[in-house]
Write a structure and sequence with these properties.
Blueprint lengths: L1 H27 L18 H76 L2 H10 L2 H10 L2 H10 L2 H13 L8
Length: 181
């Protein structure tokens, strides 16, 4: 143990003494003057330099080829992007036209149902009941739900008891599955 401590102490003294001298030398040196550049014409390319030059030229050709490939890909991507944007715009227009058509169809259908409901309301109760007797209970309930209560009551009174019961069940259960909260 003592021997190890002595060896480490000796190493520290040696390094410490030389380190101080090296630092002092560094501060006392004058800045080195840059050497004059060597003209390219004065150098003779060695065999190693020629090999390195050929490798650099080959690498430059590879880079140029890759750059042209990347440029071609970018061009194709740009064209594809433009095509996608054009298709998206046409789809957006088609969607708007479809929504407009659906709205017109729904409003026309709603208008037809409202008009037919008004016709049934203005019919004599006995004549309307005869028509409602032949309708399916779901279909009849749809019209009766839209009618004024007085007209619907007159038609229901003219129906057979089975038909009136079926329509009443449909009317009562129409909103049974609506969420309460």
């Amino acid at each position: 143990m003592t021997l190890a401590v002595m060896l480490i102490g000796s190493a520290v003294l040696r390094l410490g003494g030389e380190t101080g001298q090296a630092i002092a030398l560094e501060f006392t040196k004058e800045p080195a003057q840059p050497e004059a550049p060597i003209a390219l014409a004065e150098c003779e390319p060695a065999a190693d330099v020629a090999i390195v030059l050929e490798a650099l030229q080959a690498r430059e050709e590879q880079v140029a080829l890759r750059e042209s490939q990347v440029a071609a890909r970018l061009q194709k991507l740009s064209e594809a992007k433009a095509e996608i944007e054009a298709k998206l715009a046409s789809l957006t227009q088609a969607e708007a036209r479809l929504a407009e058509t659906i709205t017109k169809a729904e409003s026309a259908s709603e208008g037809d149902i409202a008009q037919l409901t008004a016709v049934y309301e203005n019919m004599k109760s006995k004549d309307a009941a005869a028509l409602f007797e032949t309708m399916s209970p779901d279909f009849a309930a749809g019209f009766l739900a839209r009618m004024k209560p007085e007209s619907a009551a007159g038609i229901m009174a003219g129906l057979s008891s089975e038909a009136a019961y079926s329509v009443s069940v449909v009317l009562a259960g129409r909103n049974a599955n609506v969420p309460k909260q």
